[in-house]
Amino acid sequence: MRSVIYIVFILAGLFVISCSPARHLNEIATEAETAYNEGNTREAFAHYKELINASAESGVQPEGEVFRRAGLLAYELGHTTDVIEYLELARHAGAADETVLAALAESYREIDNLSREITMLENYVENYPDTEQFPAMQSRLFETLVESMNYRQAYELWFILESDPHGDKGKMTSYLEVLLSLDKEEDATELAEKLVSLDPDNKPALDWLAKKHFRKAEELYNREMREYEQNRTHRQYAQLLDALEIVNTHLHISLDYFKRLFDQTPKSEYASYLANIYERFQDEEKARYYRQKLD
Predict the structure, then answer these.
(1) 96, 111, 135: which is the final residue of a domain?
(2) Is residue 221 in some structural domain?
(3) Would you say residue 255 lies in a domain?
(4) How far is CA 109 from CA 139, 161, 177, in A?
(5) What is the distance, to the nearest Å, from the Cα of residue 137 to the centroid of all Cα atoms in its chain?
(6) Any residues with CB less than 8 A from the CB of 175 and at least 6 apart, and which?
(7) Distance between CA 236 and CA 230 in Å, rounded?
(8) Considering the entire predicted model, what is its pTM?
(9) What is the DSSP secondary structure assignment for residue 61, as one 8-state letter?
(10) Distance from chain centroid for Cα 124
(11) How far is CA 134 from CA 39, 78, 103, 137, 231, in A?
(12) Where are the alpha helices (DSSP H) in 38-113?
């Protein structure tokens, strides 16, 4: 009889031991839930983190919502490493929504992981077009595509941006980079002129327009001079004089843009262009001034 009672006590003890981890996890989960519902961010995060760690030690896999809450609480607290760890686990557990993707995108931006940020932004834009944050996420996706030199994707996205980019000098400047990279020169010129009207000191726009007008002057001058050398007639000479007026117009426009650029950034490259243009205008004093600025 004693042996039977002894065995019963042993089995009861084993039952208590086997149940204690589950009961412990339930207690932590309850504390986490209570703190979460009461808006106690730090306390809730501490409990959820404890719950995740205790679950791992017990060989129990938490639900995706546990990772989601822990990650979003970490986001509120600015714990970037925890945000990424827990919200990626939430994604793999099928518990991701727009708030998860937005927090992950910003967190990857914090650690300069551009490719992962783009992945989160693309997922957001593809799956949550009706959210309040959608225009901002779509706009940020455009910026990251330009930054990562995915110019074709950025070009296609530009036309469907919900937030109007045409008054945004930063986005217009980025789009100028896209157009130039895709060799869409006419569109680039039109955009650069709009940019300069909005922002007279916009360097990318000034740089493109300055070099474009200088190049057009060079091409026209060389072509007309070559044709005149081959056919020295009065008519050809008159055509050359007309062309030279256009050349000078392009050079004056180019000069204005290069002076603005040089005033902002006195680079040797800009000084060289300016010296060249003043030589064309036979202004030796100014040409010499800019030649002295060359390295």
Answers:
(1) 96
(2) yes
(3) yes
(4) 14, 21, 21
(5) 10
(6) 146, 154, 158, 165, 191
(7) 10
(8) 0.85
(9) -
(10) 15
(11) 26, 22, 13, 5, 64
(12) 41-58, 64-77, 80-92, 98-110
Does residue 18 register a pLDDT over 70? Answer: no
Which tokens hold the place of 203?
């360097």
| Gap between the Cα atoms of 241 and 246, Å rounded | 9
Give mean pLDDT, residues 50-60.
92
Q: What is the DSSP string of 195-222?
A: HHHH-TT-HHHHHHHHHHHHHHHHHHHH
Instruction: Return the CATH number at 59.
Output: 1.25.40
- How far is it, in rounded angstroms, from Cα 178 to Cα 39? 45
CA 108 → CA 22, 102, 111, 112, 237, distances in Å? 35, 10, 5, 6, 64
Statement: residue 149 has pLDDT above 90: yes
Instruction: Give, for 30, the enclosing helix (H) or strand (E).
Output: helix 2-37
Q: What is the residue range of 231's domain? A: 201-295
What is the rounded end-to-end Cα distance, in angstroms, of the chain?
105
Orientation angle between helical segments 134-147 and 114-127, nearest 10 degrees: 140
Q: How many residues does the chain have?
A: 295
Give the count of beta carbons closer than 10 Å to the beta carbon of residue 210: 25
Q: Which one-letter DSSP state was computed for residue 112?
A: T
In the chain, the number of structural domains is 2
Task: Give tens-digit pLDDT for 66-122.
Answer: 999 999 999 999 999 999 999 999 999 999 999 999 999 999 999 999 999 999 999
- Residues 88 and 80 sit within 8 Å (Cβ to Cβ): no
Q: Of 96, 119, 143, which one is at a domain's C-terminal end?
A: 96
Q: Which two tokens mark 48?
A: 């959820």
